[in-house]
Each structure stands twice: as structure tokens, then as C-alpha cells.
Amino acid sequence: MIDIEQVSGGYSQEPILRDISLHIDRGSFFGIIGPNGSGKTTLVKMISGILPLQAGEIQVAGKSITAYQSRELARKLAVLPQLTSHAFSFTVKETVSLGRYAFKKGLFQTLSDEDGHIIAEVMEQTGVTQYADSPLDELSGGEKQRVFLAQALAQTPEIMILDEPTNHLDLAYQKELLDLLKDWTEKKQLTVISIFHDLNLAGLYCDKLLLLNQGKMSGYGQPDEVLKADKIQQVYHTEIEKYPHPRVPKPQMMLVPEQSNMKACNIDESMLKQSKKHIVMHVPIPLKSFSSAVTGSGMGWFDTFVNRYVDKNYQEIDHKGDMEHYLRQNGFDPNATVGMMTAVPLDTVAYLSRQGEGFSLFVVVTAGVGNAVDAAYGSKHVENMKPGTINTWIFINGNVTDEAYIQGMVTATEAKTKALRELHVMDKLTGTFATGTSTDSILIAASQQGEKLTYGGPIAPLGQLIGNTVYECTKQALKSNFERRNRE
Predict the structure, then answer these.
(1) Alpha-helical segments (H) within 55-134
(2) Residue 254 has what DSSP assignment?
(3) Can you count the helices (H) and strands (E) in the chain?
(4) For residue 292, what are the contacts with CB-CB under 8 A and spacing of at least 6?
(5) Of 171, 175, 204, 321, which is most buried with the most CB atoms under 10 A?
(6) What is the DSSP string of 129-181?
(7) Which domains are seen in the chain, by residue range?
(8) 290 vs 441: CA distance, rounded Å
(9) pLDDT 10s digits, 407-423
(10) What global pTM score does this model have?
């Protein structure tokens, strides 16, 4: 659709852009990113024919952009510039209607029925129908932005060029606008070229990205190729971390603020409080936590950890909602709390602190085996899920990588299984050694301070400590529970 070959140019003899070459497919959403002054606006002005080239060539639909008459180019290409403070004293409908100008032989020619239909459609799609008779200069910045988008769409262009289209729009309208443009690329084969300052929006919506820096190409390709943490840090001169979006296969870039005032924290048993109702671990700073808990599951940051005792016949269907209600009733914020349940009396809890080289652990385990299961034969168990009876908390004073979190969970699970086998805990249904219970839960939470802990496998320093401590705590908790049952 658009071919850019060795293009250079700018506003003076010294070019702002140098040797830019790329291809933009028909029906694609193409994003241009880069720091201020990198040449983004200069490039879109060249593509739209506003700014002449100093070198190279731009072809639109196989034809040099310099060969197009202005009205002919306007039928093929629409431009939505950055919003300025100037606004015409037209009504909204009159402003949108100007988008049909390129299709008229005279400025004052009456709009056709087809024109009216197109205008009404784009006004509806951009959410400005309700302002049809309102003067444009009385609208807010976000409302004006949507009006000018409707005007551009009224041209029914093949190519739409946008310079920061989400400026002045709140989150809902940003999403609506970009969803609309993305939908048009797929259904109407509209080619969209847009400048973005928001790297995450660019990564979410664009099929390909161009990263400019000081007038040169620093990256070109699919978002995952261009949005690399080291490359973005180099171009933008700030610390960035890259993570996948939780719902769609797109990259997201996270700014890392300075944390010079972050208070030091050493997690230990002094922070553990115990009652008949629950065990609580409250720490002075949020910990990066990864868990299979009832509330606060997955990855997040939490400063409170609750292991709640429930009767072995607990049958609440909405156990998450019930847990949140329990937390609120007892003065805990569900948004800041990892919450687990256990049917094991809490006076059998076991906990140990262990010191490694440059880091330390504090492990808490509640364990019972009334619903012990061999995971290899889980399909043979058809009874309803019961409250988890082996809950494992692992608190780490150290800086843990995502890889080490996952490896640490595997190591802890293997250590728990070893403890069960040594104590001859059996799956009563299959007669084989149990590997856990039907709804065990696990948590790893780290301060993210101090030494970087890269690996959590069984022979890595972190993994060695996790494996040994979880093994010892699980055995101790199970023995305490066996002794209590024998006394009863």
C-alpha cells in the first residue's frame, strides 16, 4: 500500500529524517513511536504530502505521492492532526460534512443522500451525534478530537494518518477510538498510520511499529520485536521492564520509578500472629507475591497474608466472595491481602527461618492429610473439593526473578511430596503414596530487595533453602497434626 524508500527530509537543508525505508500493508495498523524530536511528525507530514522530500521516494498504491493532485490524494488519504486550541465557529455536523469536500465539484454543492448517510454513520461511530447542532468551539478537547476524527472518516479514505489521536481522550474513549480504527482495518481494509507516545497502546493495537531516534530507524517490525526493554531503555534513557499483557498476546512496557525512599524490610517470625480463627502475616512493605490462594491469587503486590481456619464440612459455593467478606469483617483489606483456607487446626502450624548467603527465608506450613490424593490418579476421586489442608507460605528476603518464583514453587512442591512419602501418607482410594491433598495452596512472596536471586531450582542456593525448609516444616506440621488427632 505504502512504500517508503531511502527517504530523508525536514524543514531546512539539514534533514531531520535520514534514510528511512519501510513498507506498510493495506488494511494494517502501523504505529510510529520515539522520543520527542525524533522525527515522527515530520515523517507523517511527508507521507501525507504536506512536507516535500529531500531524498528518496514515497509511493502510495504504486504511485509516487508527488504525482497525485491534492483533491485526488484527499480521496485516498485523510489526516487527523494533533488537536490545537483553534476551533471554527461551525456546528459539529457542518465540521464533519467538510470531510465530503474532496468528492464535490464545487464548494457549495448540496450534499447527496449518500453523503448524508456517510456523515450520519461516522458521527454515530465516533459518538458525536448528540452534538450535531452544537458549535464546535463550545466542546471539550476530547469531544473536538472525536469530531475531527468523524470528519476524517467522512472522507471514506483508504489511508488514515493520525498524530497522537488519543490526546485529550479519557480511557473509555481511547479504547473506543482505537477499537473502531482496528475494526475498520479488518472490515474495510482501512490502512491506519498513527503516532503514539503511549508505548503500551501502540503495542496493543499496532500490527507493526517503527521506532525512531534522532531521525533514524532504531526498530521496525512486529511490536514484540520493537518493544524490547534494552532497546527502549537505550532510546528513551529511562529504566523499563517488559511484561506480557494479561489478556492478549501483546507486550507491555512498565516504567520503573526511583525507590530511594523505600524502607528496608526483613521478614521474620516476629510478624506472624496466630489465633484460633486465622494465622496472619503482616509486613511493613508490599511483597511481590505469586500464589494459588483463594484471594490474591496469581502475581501481585500484597502486605497481608491470612490463613483462615474453616470446618472440614465447609461447603460455601462462592468461597472467594465468602473469603473477601471474612477479610473485611476482620479488618483486612481484600485488595492488599492474600487469603487462604485450611481445615487444619491452626495450633499445629510449623514455621522456620533459614539464612542463606545474602538472603533468607521464612516458611510457614499448616498441614493435614484427611483428603490426601495421589496426583497421578486424581481422576479416580469424584467427591467435592474440600478446603485445602496443606498451605505453604514462603517469604524471601531477596530479589527474586519471575523464573525463580516458578522454579521455587516446583521445588517446594517436590519437597512437600518427599515429606508425605517419608511419613507414609497414602491415598486411601488408590492405596498409593499421596502427593498432596485435593486443594493444597502455595505462596511465594519476596521483598525484592537485596541480592538478585535468579534461580529457584533444587540445586540453586535459593532452591536448596526452599526445598530443605519446606520439607522440614511440612514434616513438623504433619507430625503435630497427627499427635493432636491421637489425643482427640
Answers:
(1) 70-76, 92-97, 113-125
(2) E
(3) 12, 26
(4) 441, 442, 443
(5) 204
(6) GGGTTSBGGGS-HHHHHHHHHHHHHHT--SEEEEESTTTT--HHHHHHHHHHH
(7) 2-255 (3.40.50.300), 269-487 (3.60.70)
(8) 11
(9) 999 999 999 999 999 99
(10) 0.82
